[in-house]
Specification:
The protein is α+β, with helices and mostly antiparallel strands and 178 residues long. Helices cover 19% and strands 33% of the residues.
């Protein structure tokens, strides 16, 4: 009887924990067989036309058009799970074309985004007065990463004041506590 109850509780816990996890799309979490860099496409765009890529970076601008949304990204190196490394060296800029409408308020500037799709060519735009050749990626799937500034970490909290704990931090006692 106890084994059945224990097994039922463990199964229930496993299902609940699995429901809390937000799995990444397969195209985002898997490393592509060939890694193509933004600089390579800028130098030889015709060579990489139609190639599959998984790129990511910081959002610079969101532009909504009648049929799709263009997102300008500052490319960053990706970690193993596909998350852009915001502290990493930039690799240039690129445009992601995503079908439909994306609200610019939900995709704000400097937010991290990873896309997976095919290279559809290049587009000439200017940055200030400088002409810049943007690789254009036809996005099949994209993943907006949670804002790290909003995520709270207990190690970064003020030890003298913690609004989530009624008597201050549970890890630190104030000198005047006693």
């Amino acid at each position: 009887m106890i084994n059945k109850v224990t097994n039922a509780l463990l199964l229930s816990l496993a299902i609940q924990l699995n429901g809390c996890a937000s799995p990444l799309p397969k195209a985002i979490s898997q490393v592509p067989p060939t890694e193509i860099r933004v600089e390579e496409v800028r130098q030889q765009p015709e060579r990489f036309l139609g190639s599959r890529v998984r790129w990511g970076g910081s959002i610079i601008q969101v532009e909504n058009l009648p049929q799709h949304t263009l997102i300008e990204l500052l490319s960053r190196p990706l970690s193993g799970n596909g998350k852009p490394d915001s502290s990493g060296r930039t690799q240039g800029r690129f445009l992601a074309r995503i079908p439909g409408f994306l609200d610019p308020e939900e995709y704000p500037k400097e937010r991290l985004l990873t896309i997976s799709g095919t290279i559809a060519g290049t587009t000439q735009r200017t940055i200030g007065d400088y002409p810049y050749l943007y690789p254009l990626v036809e996005s099949e799937i994209h993943h907006l990463w949670p804002d790290q500034r909003e995520a709270r970490d207990w190690r970064n909290r003020d030890p003298f004041y913690d609004p989530w704990y009624p008597w201050g931090s549970p890890w630190y006692r104030h000198p005047y506590y006693w």
